[in-house]
Specification:
This protein is α+β, with helices and mostly antiparallel strands. It contains ten helices and eight strands. It has helices spanning 3-26, 28-31, 36-54, 62-85, 87-94, 108-113, 118-127, 160-163, 185-191, 195-204, and strands at 98-102, 105-106, 136-141, 147-151, 175-179, 182-183, 213-218, 224-228. Strands 2-1-3-4 form a four-stranded antiparallel beta sheet. It has a four-stranded antiparallel beta sheet with strand order 6-5-7-8. Helix 1 runs antiparallel to helix 3 and helix 1 runs parallel beside helix 4 (62-85).
Length: 233
């Protein structure tokens, strides 16, 4: 087999493993691109990895390329640590929220500072389900470039409390308990639900066996959503 091809496989495999470890080390904040700094460092991190794999620069040995990845990750972690310890440094690195609309009025100076025009603002408001500026009490441009919107009270959707609907005391996150005809034991244990309870609910739905259930999910109101397995042709 061609030695160049084997070298490429080795570089790709090692870079893949380093990327896997380092992305876990960097954490979810980095991966979610919460700020422009996170976005730029994420792109650069990927570019370094691509350079190591493809080896466009013949003067970049494998070890030096992997060392560059590790050093970039460490610098990113260092900057994140500085941001945790010193708020002023965090503002300098990540920026801070900018109020664009206050008490229903557009702040033109803030828009100019953020380099937003009215078309940009109305588009971002529509993305937040505000189709008219008159509906908005506050609009805040976050450091990651998204717009947070608080509508005026008269334009808010009615909540369950407003209409007097019954509110569950401890709503659950919908959780799968059967997948492809098999119990998800970890979730059953966390929810404190027995298989006997599940089997009763399944039989109430007219299904005789767990094997006949493709997917089942415990809902927020503690009811059971059941998707029956398709019959064999």
């Amino acid at each position: 087999m061609d030695t160049h091809f084997l070298s490429m496989l080795l570089r790709t495999s090692l870079t893949f493993l380093f990327m896997l470890v380092l992305t876990r080390l960097l954490g979810k904040k980095q991966l979610s691109h919460l700020t422009f700094f996170n976005y730029v460092t994420g792109i650069t991190f990927g570019s370094i990895a691509a350079e190591v794999v493809i080896q466009k620069n013949q003067d970049l040995p494998l070890f030096q390329g992997l060392a560059s990845l590790v050093w970039w990750a460490l610098l990113t972690l260092l900057v994140g640590h500085i941001g945790l310890k010193w708020p002023k440094a965090r503002i300098a690195i990540d920026g801070e929220p900018t109020i664009i609309i206050r008490n229903g009025r557009i702040l033109e100076s803030a828009m100019a500072k953020a380099r937003l025009n009215l078309d940009d603002l109305t588009m971002m408001l529509r993305e937040r389900d505000a189709f008219s500026i008159r509906e908005v009490e506050y609009a805040i441009l976050e450091p990651h470039g998204k717009l947070s919107v608080m509508k005026k009270p008269e334009y808010l959707n009615a909540s369950k409390k407003d209409v007097g609907a019954q509110i569950p005391l401890h709503p659950l996150i919908p959780t799968e308990i059967i997948s492809d005809g098999k119990y998800v034991d970890k979730n059953l244990k966390e929810l404190g639900i027995s298989t006997r309870w599940v089997e009763r609910r399944i039989k109430e739905a007219g299904i005789q066996s767990v094997a006949d259930v493709f997917y089942a999910e415990l809902q927020s109101d503690r009811s059971l959503f059941i998707d029956r397995r398709d019959p064999l042709p």
